[in-house]
Amino acid sequence: xxxxxxxxxxxxxxxxxQLVTAQIPQGQKLRSExxxxxxxxxxxxxxxxxxxxxxxxxxxFEEQRGFRARPADPERLHYLTKFRIxxxxxxxxxxxxxxxxxxxxxxxxxxxxxxxxxxxxxETSLGGPTLRLWSLAELEFxxxxxxxxxxxxxxxxYRRTYDQFRQQKIMQPDYGYxxxxxxxxxxxxxxxxxRDVAGCCFAIYEHMKRNLRDGGASGxxxxxxxxxx
Length: 229
Known about the structure:
Elements: H1 8-20, E1 29-30, H2 32-39, H3 43-55, E2 59-62, E3 66-69, H4 74-98, H5 101-119, H6 128-146, H7 152-169, H8 181-193, H9 197-208
Antiparallel strand pairs: 1-3, 2-3
Helix pairs in contact: 1-3, 2-3, 4-7, 4-9, 5-6, 5-8, 6-7, 8-9
């Protein structure tokens, strides 16, 4: 555990990563005294970081009971998935329409990096450092897909939603990773680079529909112009 003195941003980044990669289990109490010792910082610094994480939905604060990592909640995962699909479809649509060669190159590179990691997951466990590496690469890929949308507000909203989504998924079997992920990511990047808006939106929906309450059976968020499932 960390013992040196760390700055407030460093403490935030470390706790944030622990929350979204299952190093801090869902529902676990976050004891300020212990965190102060671990990070060699003041009580005010810890409270500032924990309240910021609470405002981002990763931590729950209760009067007289303090802070704890947000518990697992299937209903919450359902609505986070719906919102994430909506934001990603809108952001990808704008990126496809406005992104140039630089965006295409960055997206292809992010996908190549993610694909390389996912190709090795059959050979190694996803826990520990590998989980952190895959989580960062997956976020980089999806964030790059939206990076040419020219809406900082959409991108910041997407990042907050993604982090809460990942925290909910991470405590599932195999950390919420599915063997179909690599194929689904390939479908997303292929349609995006082909400037196929409807196809990309459909690929995004197909990638995330398993996390909806009905497994996507209703087709509620499926683009109308996409092929039937």
